[in-house]
Amino acid sequence: MARRRRPGPRRALSEEMILDAALDLLDEGGSAAASVRSIAARVGVAPNAVYTYFPSKAVVLQGVVERILGEVEHDTVVDAARPWRERVESLALHLRERVLAHPAAVPLMVGGPMDGRNALTLNEQLLELLCDAGLTPTDAARASYLLVVYVFGSMALNVAHGPDSGPLPPEADRVAARRDRFAAIPAESFPRSAAATDTIASFVTTEQFLWGLRRLLDGITAQA
Amino acid sequence: MARRRRPGPRRALSEEMILDAALDLLDEGGSAAASVRSIAARVGVAPNAVYTYFPSKAVVLQGVVERILGEVEHDTVVDAARPWRERVESLALHLRERVLAHPAAVPLMVGGPMDGRNALTLNEQLLELLCDAGLTPTDAARASYLLVVYVFGSMALNVAHGPDSGPLPPEADRVAARRDRFAAIPAESFPRSAAATDTIASFVTTEQFLWGLRRLLDGITAQA
DNA sequence: ACCTGAACACCGTTCAAGT
DNA sequence: ACCTGAACACCGTTCAAGT
Questions:
Q1: B172 touches A115 (CB < 8 A)
Q2: Could you tell me if A16 and A70 are in contact, meaning their C-beta atoms sit under 8 angstroms apart?
Q3: Which residues in chain A have their CB less than 8 angstroms from residue B215's CB?
Q4: Which CA distances in Å does A18 have to A22, A60, A61, A65?
Q5: What is the pLDDT of residues B126-178, one digit of tens each?
């Protein structure tokens, strides 16, 4: 089935080089920096040459998402001998860590299809885990969707306030920035929100992420 | 403290008119249709006249988000006499229904600050509800964040696959579209995902939303 | 103070032409 | 088949000028 291809001049690039360039630009300058023109410039071709490799910018960005999800080493992180809840937790924590390394890509994930090979692999592993836990296939599928919504939803809200360029600041700085942001809540109109400022500021932490994840797992097991 | 303003010619517009135009365009043509230029055209002024009312496009879109969140009639939906779980459920369902009426606005909410007056009002009401349920202020704040992540996260993933224009199709059509999309999963590589196609297709339904919400409430009460 | 015309510095994408 | 120059139809935003 091996078809010969491209009889013309050797191609100067590869899909991978374009995805690399796009991801680098995304990491360095945020979503606005990853234009077709700047991607092309970085790999040293004219803007329209990109369309030899990808049909549109949207497909390039989809490829970037897939590349990031591919960086999640699905199997090595999760020790099959441990209890299933711990396995889910370490998978979720690892996924979150890997994705938050590319903050500008989070909106692309939440806003796009997420039905590529690596996304499916991730989902498949989660399903396996939940079936091992004794859930029916239907409940496992529902629960995995719930977990996906939580992991990606929390990342999206985490990233929402931050700057649109560069890597994610350290956790302490993000908490401080959030506290500043919510310190101005008028206590007379929103007494409970104002009183909870410190807790609200901590929503961007891994600790709060784990708290929510555990409540979610509690809910799933209570159901089973 | 009433300060006199604008000694020049009477302003032809108001902030509200601009927000109306922006929301209409968003609803009719998706996020790409709500450009500063098209907003200006709809209200009958030159593009740069918009900058007399708002400092930037981002602030206009923030205003649109606030307007939508203001459409949620916080109090009337939730009967204070009912058990707190039911009150949370009806608040979440109502919020979801109101927001999904404007699919193109969902990414704006998940991607932006969400710290306006109406967003705070919503959060305050949720906090009150959870405190009534017996949670400590800290746990109530954490739980409300968990609920917000879930409600907005699930909407974002729901809207992600759909077309970028017009109102959200009826639920049955969205399920069918999703089934088509995931019917192509190769069963040899992803056996569990392929077997769960029907369940996966149903993720966009209100029923599945409620299922997840209830697991979440189970987890929160198990903690308390 | 509010609005305009014109311009600046960008976009994504297409097309005819070269090799 | 791959790449280029040039163009098309857009963007958000700024600025000087009018009233």
A1: no
A2: no
A3: 143, 146, 216, 219-220, 222-223
A4: 6, 8, 10, 13
A5: 999 999 999 999 999 999 999 999 999 999 999 998 888 899 999 999 999 99
